[in-house]
Amino acid sequence: MSVAGLKKQFHKASQLLKEKINGVEGTKLDEEFLNMERKTDITHKLILDLVPKTIGYLQPNPAYRAKLNMLSTVSKIRGQVKSVGYPQTEGILGDCMLCYGNELGAESGFGFALLEMGEALKQVAQAKDCMDVRVKRTFIDPLQSLQHKELKEIAYHLRKLEGRRLDFDYKKRRKGKIADSEIKKAFEKFEESKDLAERSMFNLLERDVQRMQHLSGLLEAVMDYHRQSQQILENLRSSLQSRITDASNQPKREFASKSVVSTVCYTDIYGFSTCSSGVILSHLITLNRNYDSGPPLDQPCCQALYSFQPENQGELGFKEGDIIILTSQIDENWCEGMIRGEAGLFPMNYVKVLIPLPQ
């Protein structure tokens, strides 16, 4: 800084101290100017407060916001264009429903309803993402541009004006010691700065219509989001109600109790060890009863694998699990046997031979 510049800074500091400490009055600006300055200051504070609160309205979770800002900064450093979107709560809930709906399966009424609602919530989340982008473009970006350009320029003009006022007041107070030409020059610079600052504030405050349009953009974006959400949820409600009605009209299924032994190992009356998975306990009891009343062990016999109902005269009927005494084999498909005092023919593919006939 030159000597003249240092001297001027000293004059300004001297004048400021006298005004603050000694109560010396400086040149007063007109009320209209002061009123514009007050409104400009309010506008600046408004933007500083409104922009972060609007972002908080769109993205309520501060932890996620901080994470997104960090990822965005890292992407810019790396030169990456792809940005990470904010995880909307509707999307998170929708993902949860889709996950468990898929696990239950679409054949389950509740599972299918979860899938439908999950998809609907994902659509709501997409609509909210669109609202975020639209609000940023039509409301947040213009306000931030106003803050970084016009308001910054006005702040510069006001600082310049204050500096020139202090310089003018200092020289005016030392009239007689300072040449009139210097005082006049200082006054002209003061007037010039006042005019620039006043013009800038006037232009800012006269664009109220533009600011109202920005507010309207915010309102339209929010309303469109709620309209889309309502339509999506109305369709979901209609579909879900239809499914509830259809499910309610379906005949109720009766519970059939099944007693199942997961793994049963036993030794039958012939000394064979058998392990069976999924054996019905009642079936085992029936077999044991049949064994108890079965034939002697020294006779050829077989065990019924299935129940057989005789259709022709001379055929022998039996139930699954019965022990049948073998008397003769007619051919490779038919045998003759006896059970409970009755004799007759029966098919070989219905039985399992336990003790074969002698060759």
Automatic annotation (TrEMBL):
| The keyword Membrane is assigned to this record | yes
**Signal sequence segment:** none
Superkingdom is Eukaryota
From the UniProt record, give one GO term of the biological process aspect. Answer: synaptic vesicle uncoating
Which intervals hold domain SH3? 297-356
Q: Which UniProt keywords apply?
A: Coiled coil, Cytoplasm, Endocytosis, Membrane, SH3 domain
The places in or outside the cell where this protein is found are: Cytoplasm; Early endosome; Membrane
The BAR domain is annotated at: 18-249
Q: Which InterPro entries match?
A: AH/BAR_dom_sf, BAR_dom, Endophilin_A_SH3, Endophilin_SH3RF, SH3-like_dom_sf, SH3_domain
Q: Which GO CC terms are listed, alphabetically?
A: early endosome; glutamatergic synapse; membrane; presynapse
Q: What Pfam families does the record point to?
A: BAR, SH3_9
Q: How the protein sits in the membrane?
A: Peripheral membrane protein
Q: What is its main location?
A: cytoplasm
* Gene3D superfamilies listed in its UniProt record: Arfaptin homology (AH) domain/BAR domain, SH3 Domains
State the similarity comment: Belongs to the endophilin family.
Supply the name of the protein. Answer: Endophilin-A3-like
Q: Which organism is it from?
A: Sinocyclocheilus anshuiensis
